[in-house]
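FORM 7B: Structural annotation worksheet

SECTION A. Query
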Amino acid sequence: MVTAITDADEMVQIFEQDLDVQDCSEPQKARFSKGHVVFDKVSFTYENGRKLFSSISLDIKAGERVALVGHSGAGKSTALKLLLRFADVSKGAIFIDEQNIARLAQDDLRQNIAYVPQEPVLFHRSLRDNIAYAKPRATAREIEDAARMARAHEFIESLPQGYKTLVGERGIKLSGGERQRVAIARAMLKDAPVLVMDEATSSLDSISEGKIQAAFEDLMQGRTTIVIAHRLSTIRRMDRIIVFDEGKITEDGDHEALLSLGGTYAALWHSQVGGFIN
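SECTION B. Predicted structure
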């Protein structure tokens, strides 16, 4: 009994904590259509006082495919956290289709961004339910069409219970590549104007990665796409590659242009091609 009360008290304390990111009192309705993303003189400082960004600006045009690269701690993941409002900027603003995202409700903002993380979060429900998480009222036809585009329909149909198959806690009954394809099917079903992918193929073998890259090509069509990748072979065909270094944008261009610069990107590329990283 004492243990149960102690555990309950700790849980209540967690629920009573104030949220780090608060919505404004009268949030606007998100009106995204094209997916034009702008970081306007954005600064960001961590709670411990460490400053990462100091007035950085970035303009990602509607429909553009952009990769963020750089060493660990350079600011790539933090840029995505600010875009998704998992944290708020210290100064400056981030706009999508000319709307300041700080003036939107967080739920409304994230409903208009498709997010494919490195480790997809799956629930101990059926495959159909896990895909439909992106659009709860989706029809069976919409779910299966999304699965086909994500290259997931074939493996789902091969299971004894098909789309009714339970995936286990965190999708433990599926392989890494299968979980990732379910996450891509979710993003397909969501059909949002902005797509964010965070190291979405880093833990996959080459065969699984090949199938998923083909699905990504379909997923990126007509969407503004922002990708974080340490495996540079996966992003060489992006429209732009933006290099972060200690909170600053130091290089911006396509694969060939950045190789010719002989800077940070070229060093990262050659170290990976050579089979080692300095």
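SECTION C. Observations
DSSP finds ten helices and ten strands in the chain. The longest helix spans residues 2-16.

SECTION D. Sign-off
Analyst initials: ____
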